[in-house]
Amino acid sequence: MTDFLQLGIRKEINYTLKSLGIEAPTPIQERTIPSVLEGKDVIAKAQTGTGKTLAFVLPIIEKIDVHNSDVQALILTPTRELAQQISKEIKRIMENVEGINVLAVYGGQDVEHQLKKLKGAQHIVVATPGRLLDHIRRGTIDLSTVQMFVLDEADQMLLMGFLPEVDEIIQESLSSPQTMLFSATMPNEITTLVKKYLVEPEFIEVKAKKV
Ligand code: ADP
Ligand code: MG
């Protein structure tokens, strides 16, 4: 049985995962983590509840340079609940890892609070598209340093009408980062977006049961 160490995850994180009852990678994690660590663009399709969050969170954490205070990873997600959930998950996983900061940016939360946080070093930003665009337009966030970009729950983004905002964020703010797209289904509009922005992506599809 493959474990997280064999996939390239450091032992401090493997230890935390175990303490959380997460012993073995799910199929989507097993196939996605090595490719992301190699720096490949990835399209991962797997149904809800198959562990897609850790499939991108774990390799991203491995690749963050704590000696560099720039925003290095951007995770876009359709709802504030998901943004909160993912940033909480990242903090939980980093219990035994020093120095990586994560900030959630979403609508409905006090902008002043977000502005104050944005002044400090934030390595990972988890955001909803609308509020992130507000910050981009105000000039209060610099995403030109982002090296890893995740579009999470891409089909939900489409359903909620966020693809134009996603498009604007990619075009206006990002400088060709490694890109990862995660979705339960792959409608045409998503395929079009993939073709526009991903470079020789690896397509990973898992037809598995839920965790
Ligand atoms: P998805 O994004 O595919 O819908 P999530 O990433 O939200 O799924 O994961 C669903 C649940 O499975 C979460 O509660 C998560 O903590 C749990 N989980 C993720 N990976 C594992 C694993 N390898 N072993 C056990 N539980 C896991
Ligand atoms: Mg998910």
From TrEMBL:
Residue stretches making up the DEAD-box RNA helicase Q domain = 2-30
Q: Which domain of life is it from?
A: Bacteria
Q: Where is the Helicase ATP-binding domain?
A: 33-204
Transmembrane portions of the chain: none
Return the motif ranges for Q motif. Answer: 2-30
Please state which protein family the record places this protein in. Answer: Belongs to the DEAD box helicase family.
- Its name, as the record gives it, is ATP-dependent RNA helicase DeaD
Q: Which species does the entry assign this protein to?
A: Lederbergia wuyishanensis
Q: Which residues of the full protein are shown?
A: 1 to 211 of 428
